[in-house]
Amino acid sequence: MVLSVVLAAFVLILPVELPDKTLFATLVLATRFAPLPVFVGVGLAFGLQVVIAVTAGSLLSLLPDAVVSGVVTVLFLTGAVLLWREARKGGEDEAATTLAREQTSFLRAAVISFGVLFAAEWGDLSQLATAGLAARYAEPLSVFVGAWAALLVISGLAAFLGRKLADRLPVALLHRIAAGLFLVFAVIAAVETARSLAG
Fold it and tell me: pLDDT at residue 19 above 70?
C-alpha cells in the first residue's frame, strides 16, 4: 500500500462527496432509522461501489499509457465541469423535512440504507474519480483504502451529526473546491498523455 496514493484518493473524494446527493440521502435515512444501522448499510454500499470503481480503473490501466492518461484526463475534466456547474446553480436542495424515526430492526434499516445508497452511487462523480485514480496510479488497494475512508467519513458525519452539518455546509464552495481538485488531476493526466505521445 502506498500512503501518498491513499492520501490522494482521500483528499480528492472527500470534497466531491460532501455536497453530493448521497450525503443528503444518508441524512434523510438517519431521520428515519437509528444512525448506526444507517452508517453500516451506507458504508457497505460505498465499499462495494469502490470495489467496482477500482476494478474498472484497474482494467483501464491495462491499456497503453497514452490511452489511460487520455481517458483519465477526460474523466477528471468531466467531473470538474459538472461540479463547477453545480456550484453555479447554488448547490443541492436542503435535506428533506424531518420525519419521525421508524422503529425497525437493525438489519432491516441497514439493508434499506445499503439499497438506497448502492443505487444512488452508480455513475456518481466519486465513482468516476475512483476509477480514474485506480487507472492513473495502478495501486488498487491504496485507491480503495483512500476512497472508502473518505466515503466512510462522509457517511459517518451524515448519519451521526446529520442536520447540524446540513445547515452549515457551504455547498457551492465545496463544489468549487472539488472542481478545482478535479481540474488539477486533469492537468496532471493531460501532461502525462502528452509525454506518452511524445516519447
Answer: no
